[in-house]
Amino acid sequence: MYHLVVFFLCHYLNIKFNLAHVTRPTPGESSTSASSRYQPLLPRIQSRVITPSNFTMAAVIKAINAKIRSNSVLDYVCSTHFWGPVSNFGIPVAAVMDTQKDAEIISGPMTGALVVYAATFMRYSLAITPKNYLLFACHLTNFGAQTTQGFRYLNYWKWGGREKQLAEQAAKGGAAAEAGA
């Protein structure tokens, strides 16, 4: 079963199994001179062709890696420049979803820490070489969502939003009591 998986993976990635350059020595020729004919080709062959002499899992992984790295889109998708921001996008997505919840549950210190974190790593994503614009977008989104949450926290706890909400609830409760009586 394992060999079928490797075969189909190699077939999908267009890695060829080349048995043509593996020859038996002719009479009078030593086995080392037969393999030395192909020595200049070996670095190029080993990255794309799997032969019986190098058919190990390491050779398969090396061939798959060479195939992936030869395509610029696949090379980017298989890098930490892509997967770091993608996995980090959970934080801004959660922050954006939290903007729909009640402001009473917002933690001010945590929101402040996340604003500082997002601002720091927005700067970091542009300071590294090469610049990681996907990471910048992730932290920009997080910065915006956390700033919104910070404003909601301040409005609710410091600028009278809680009292206003309680007064509205009391007015609705009084109106409901009058309608029921």
Automatic annotation (TrEMBL):
Cellular component GO terms held in the UniProt record: mitochondrial inner membrane
Subcellular localization: Mitochondrion inner membrane
UniProt keyword terms in alphabetical order: Membrane, Mitochondrion, Mitochondrion inner membrane, Signal, Transmembrane, Transmembrane helix, Transport
Pfam families: MPC
Source domain of life: Eukaryota
GO term, biological process aspect, one: pyruvate import into mitochondria
Main location class: mitochondrion
Signal sequence, renumbered to the chain: 1-20
Membrane topology: Multi-pass membrane protein
Function field: Mediates the uptake of pyruvate into mitochondria.
Entry similarity comment: Belongs to the mitochondrial pyruvate carrier (MPC) (TC 2.A.105) family.
Stated name of the protein: Mitochondrial pyruvate carrier
